[in-house]
Specification:
- By secondary structure, this protein is of the alpha+beta class.
- It has 3 domains: 42 residues; 222 residues, Amidase signature (AS) enzymes; 224 residues, Alpha-Beta Complex (Amidase signature (AS) enzymes).
- Helices cover 36% and strands 14% of the residues.
- The chain is built from 18 helices and 18 strands.
- The strands form 4 sheets. Strands 1, 2, 5, 6, 7, 11, 12 and 14 form an 8-stranded mixed β-sheet that branches. It has a 4-stranded mixed β-sheet with strand order 9-8-10-13.
- Strand 16 and strand 17 form a beta hairpin.
- Helix 6 packs across helix 9, helix 13 packs antiparallel against helix 15 and helix 13 crosses helix 16.
- The longest helix has 35 residues.
- The chain is globular, with a radius of gyration of 23 Å.
């Protein structure tokens, strides 16, 4: 009885904590509304004009002094950190992200704010310092103004509630960077910072119709970025950016890589800056493509998105090559083996505080390295620069469906398994014709039936296709990479989306400013005359 009573009291305290925090948030929102209201009006003509500006135009007007950071931040419903920027010297305006409001995913530490992962037990435990990414963004003039919702342990969330799709509130925004996808998609943020362990940047970008970029692990700092995976081994999460267009994502990544602050804060990062000559390289690419991995069927609208992006690449003068990723079913077995190697003890530890351990995981890491080698061999035999493939098998489903269709994550997890960078770019929407063709979608598996069921009645939902390129650090694929994410964007119909996966293998010696070798074990050795150090992580 004593144990049951103690458990009940603990649950009551957690519930009280959640209710108290939700009450505080509602009160804070009321105060913010009152402070921002001008004559009873929040969306004044001036603020509407600011919100309508393209992100790069907004940056230019902030830097030339035509717009004040406080006014811009007020237009995005916050102003906490902008005042200090206006009081700073004029040369501060030369910072690449001067005055730009940036939203931050909830699992990324912001000084003085909770990082809960959606867990009530983490309420009232504010971070004592900013994550390295947040510090680096602020050093480049950005104004982090809010944290965005995630599911509990990046899977579901009773603390802050459910995040819905800005285009259709009956559908999900995706996860686990769904708060970022929804806020950027709704116009509430220009640039957002997320993280991606199995598609957590790309899926929300696909569902919400925005641009998203997942970097190679080790390119952007993960200091102060919380992960649900114990030890983060095998399939490792990596930070990423979400934005309204490619240019603002480029600006954000370039600022992080050129500033130097991030490399000083996190010495484990190879100090490779942005290389503009790769970003501006305009040689024709060899573009591989596929719209079916022969394991999880892709809905008609998502396949059409790949076809439109492929045709746009061809029309732009690039070489198109059919490609089949190797043994995707085996890849999925590896993915599930890695994610479940501890029989769920890591998540259970987060939920109830018990210790966890993992043994099975080590037995699959060797097979993972072999699979990556096989993928790279297939890539190099086709002499590819980039790979175009489906963003996700289906459009945004209703909120109850993602946990029922987990195998659909194969489409995105494949490139987390290989540690390849990946990006999402707008191209198209679901059409009535796509819905009609959905009648022929296979139903040989219960999960396929659920995909067909959840994809119905979704005209106008965003659709994505995905390009990929295999060089994880000094990329030479003209932006299909973590260094220079200038995705070759096809002719766009306004409001339409497509996803591009940018891939890169974990091997090889590449000549650039600094020559490096990256063995599968993850040890970087620098062979350049300019560098004489190496880092292990």
């Amino acid at each position: 009885m004593t144990s049951m009573s103690s458990c009940s009291n603990s649950e009551e305290k957690l519930q009280e904590s959640m209710e108290q925090r939700q009450k505080e948030v509602r009160a804070a929102l009321d105060r913010l509304e009152a402070a921002l209201s001008e004559g009873g009006e929040l969306l004044t003509e001036e603020r509407l004009a600011i919100l309508a500006l393209p992100p790069t135009t907004l940056l230019h007007r902030l830097r030339d002094g035509h717009l004040a950071p406080t006014h811009v931040l007020q237009a995005f419903q916050a102003k906490e950190w902008a005042a200090s920027l206006e009081e700073a010297p004029l040369e501060t305006r030369n910072l690449p992200l001067y005055g730009l409001p940036v939203s931050v995913k909830e699992n990324i530490d912001v000084e003085g704010r909770d990082t809960t992962l959606g867990l009530a037990k983490n309420l009232y435990r504010p971070a004592f310092r900013h994550a390295a990414l947040v510090q680096a963004l602020k050093a480049q003039g950005a104004v982090p103004f809010c944290k965005t919702n995630v599911p509990q342990t990046c899977i579901s969330n009773p603390v802050w509630g459910e995040t819905v799709n800005p285009a259709n509130t009956q559908r999900t925004s995706g996860g686990s960077s769904g708060g970022e996808g929804a806020l950027v998609g709704a116009g509430g943020s220009v640039l957002g910072v997320g993280s991606d362990l199995g598609g957590s940047v790309r899926i929300p970008a696909h569902f919400c119709g925005v641009v998203g970029l997942k970097t190679t692990r080790g390119r952007l700092s993960t200091q102060g970025v919380l992960s649900v995976m114990n030890g983060d081994v095998g399939i490792r999460g990596s930070p990423g950016l979400l934005g309204r267009d490619v240019e603002i994502v480029v600006a954000g990544l370039r600022a992080l890589l050129e500033g130097g602050c991030m490399f000083e804060l996190d010495p484990q990062l190879p100090p490779i800056s942005w290389r503009h000559h790769l970003y501006t390289d305009d040689r024709p690419l060899r573009v591989g493509w596929y719209d079916d991995d022969n394991v999880f069927p892709i809905t008609p609208g998502c396949r059409r998105a790949v076809a439109e992006a492929r045709d746009a690449f061809h029309a732009a003068g690039h070489h198109i090559v059919a490609f089949s990723p190797p043994d995707v079913r085996h890849a999925w077995n590896l993915i599930t083996a890695i994610y479940t190697a501890d029989q769920g003890r890591t998540v259970q530890h987060l939920l109830d505080g018990e210790a966890s351990s993992s043994h099975q995981l080590l037995r699959v890491l060797g097979s993972q390295a072999e699979y990556v080698e096989e993928f790279v061999d297939a890539w190099t035999s086709c002499h590819l620069d980039v790979l175009l493939c489906p963003a996700f098998p289906m459009p945004a489903p209703p909120p109850s469906y993602p946990t029922k269709t987990m195998a659909a994550l194969l489409t995105t997890c494949l490139y987390n398994l290989c540690n390849f960078p990946a990006g999402v770019v707008p191209v198209t929407h679901e059409t009535e014709e796509d819905q009609e063709k959905l009648e022929d979608y296979p139903t040989t598996d219960l999960m396929f039936q659920l995909v067909k069921e959840s994809s119905g009645h979704s005209p106008c939902s965003p659709r994505a296709a995905s390009p990929a390129g295999p060089k994880p650090y000094p990329h030479s694929t003209r932006g299909h990479s973590v260094h220079s994410p200038r995705v070759v964007c096809p002719q766009q119909t306004p409001g339409h989306i497509s996803e591009f996966e940018v891939l890169g293998p974990h091997k090889g010696t590449i000549t650039s400013e600094a020559v490096y070798t990256c063995p599968a074990q993850g040890i970087w050795k620098w062979d350049s005359d300019e560098l004489d150090a190496y880092v292990e992580y």
